[in-house]
Amino acid sequence: MLLKHINAQDEIYFIIDSDCDGYTAGATLINYILEAFPNMKDHINYSFHEGKKHGINLMAVPTSAKLVIAADSSSNDYVIHQQLHNCGIDVLVLDHHIAEKESENACVVNNQLCDYPNKSLSGVGVVYKFCQKLDEILHMHCADNQLDLVMLGLIGDVMDLRSFETRYLCELGMHQVRDPFISLMAEKNAFSLKGELTPIGVAFYIVPLVNAITRVGSMEEKELLFKSMLYSEAYKEVPSTKRGCKGQTETIVEQAVRVCTNVKNRQTKVRDNAVETIERVINEQNLLSKKILIVRMPEGFADKSVLGLIANELMNKYRRPTMLLTKSGNSWAGSARGIILADFRKLCEDSHLVDYAQGHPSAFGTSVPDNLLPRFQDWIEDQVKDIEFSPNYKVDFIFHATDSKMVKAIFELGDCRHLWAQCVDEPLIAIENVCVTKNMITLLSRDKNPTIKIQLPNGVSCIKFKASEAEY
Questions:
Q1: 420 by DSSP, 3-state: which?
Q2: Which of 43, 49, 128, 273 is the most buried (most CB within 10 A)?
Q3: What angle do CA 138, 139, 140 make, to 5 degrees?
Q4: How does the average pLDDT of the chain come out, rounded?
Q5: Would you place residue 387 in the very low, low, confident or very high pLDDT band (cuts 50, 70, 90)?
Q6: Per the structure, how many domains does the chain have?
Q7: Bridge partners of residue 337, in order along the sequence
Q8: Where are the beta strands (DSSP E) in 117-264?
């Protein structure tokens, strides 16, 4: 179907999904098409969602389009598929999200809807497999040129890196960086990355900047980031927006990397301010008396695009599944996080009291009818009544503070930093019987959330971030 439209030089319209996986999935396929068929450059268009939304925005699809491609979304957009089909527009879905069935009005490639053994490929992974098949049909070798984007999307969507194929694709991508955005981002963060790309390094120092743009960036900032991932656009010169450089030019990718940092800082400020206010609501309403933390946000309180980030913060702090909901018509809709539960999303679905619960098992969007919310809260509390959510930490090593073997173990584990990834967790060490004296403690910063350093006699430095003056 894709090749039919390429041969006819029809307009192909991409829906770019609102996260790191969505951006890399769209960029991977566009890069592939333009490398294999350079004459398609003027026949490809795309659009982005306002805020953190997913699926096909029907209103954005131009009537001139003959093929709509949804990468990393839309498996269950059955009604929209039919509407486009009725308009004579073909739909190609390359996705990994769970859906009830395969659409009757779209061509769907989804590793969750077939017997393909690797279920830990994200949207960009499915796009890569699609490109491999195109290589086979066309007798070309273009798919592997996008492996760095594939790596970024797989890590960005928190895929299970115990899977041999997923791990292998990430390893290949980290060792053959070609994409303009990833290359410059790795260069700018070389110190933090310690000179090499690792799954943890990518997850901490590159993915969050991409996600910041997709969540709170303006439409112009989103387009700038996406273009920086495209070989056909990234190195074009544009007027510089850098302070003190008026009248000068810079490449799109240079501007995008700088803008990502600015937007990430902006997002962090919004998130931190929101967390403070929500914590007051939690305390005032005694919400911690429940095992599932469900917070109904005041109308217009915060940017809804950062609800997932805030839910993550609260889940980690209070060690319990968390839902942040805002009023939406006759329902309460928002984000849920529950990595402590095996499948929080399915638990919500099993209640049959929600409008929907869509996404990943521990990170998803949901909506609960206003009149059913009290029943839902009672039901879900009953389901988890025997689960202990207290802040316990499972560690791999326990050392006495004076144990001479501790330093050797820390260095050996540090040498394995390239192994740690999603579901291959970095080992945790507990140090017991630490005798702390005044001269061992240093306050590294005196900002709003200062950092405390404790220097142990054996040379090990313990750092606590986001501490307080009182703790010091």
A1: coil
A2: 128
A3: 90
A4: 92
A5: confident
A6: 3
A7: 322, 363
A8: 237-239, 249-251
Radius of gyration, alpha carbons of the chain: 24
Are 110 and 127 in contact by the 8 Å Cβ rule? The answer is no
* Domain region containing 41: 2-261
* 257-309 confidence digits (pLDDT tens): 999 999 999 888 888 888 888 888 899 899 999 999 999 987 766 566 778 88
Helix axes 147-156, 180-188, angle to 10 degrees: 60
For the record, the structure tokens of 180 come out as 């303009």
CB atoms within 10 A of CB 438: 5
In a domain, 337, yes or no: yes
CATH number for the domain that contains residue 97: 3.90.1640.30
Q: Are residues 339 and 203 in the same domain?
A: no
Nearest to 200 by CA among 36, 422, 33: 422
Quick one: 238 and 159 in the same domain?
A: yes
pLDDT of residue 301: 65
Tokens of 299: 């109308």
pLDDT tens per residue across span 338-361: 877 888 999 999 999 999 998 888
> How many beta carbons lie within 10 A of that of residue 15, not counting itself?
28
Do 371 and 402 belong to one domain?
Answer: no
C-alpha pair distances (Å), 430 with each of 5, 117, 139, 213, 406: 59, 38, 55, 37, 10
The crossing angle, in degrees rounded to 10, of helices 207-216 and 252-284 is 70
- What is this structure's pTM? 0.83
Question: How many helices (DSSP H) and strands (DSSP E) are in the chain?
Answer: 15, 17
Which residue, 25, 27, 17, 35, is CA-closest to 230? 27
Show the tokens assigned to 460.
Answer: 């090990």
Longest Cα pair distance anywhere in the chain, in angstroms? 76
Q: Is the pLDDT confidence value at 57 over 90?
A: no
With H, G, I as helix, E, B as strand and everything else as coil, classify residue 321.
Answer: coil
Tell whether 54 and 106 lie within a shared domain.
yes
**462 strand-pairing partners:** 454
Read off the pLDDT band of 83 (50, 70, 90): very high
Range in 8-17, 218-227, 392-401 the model is least confident about? 392-401
User: Which two structure tokens, joined as six digits, stand for 331?
Assistant: 């329902």
Q: Which helix (H) or strand (E) holds 397?
A: strand 397-400
193, part of any domain? yes
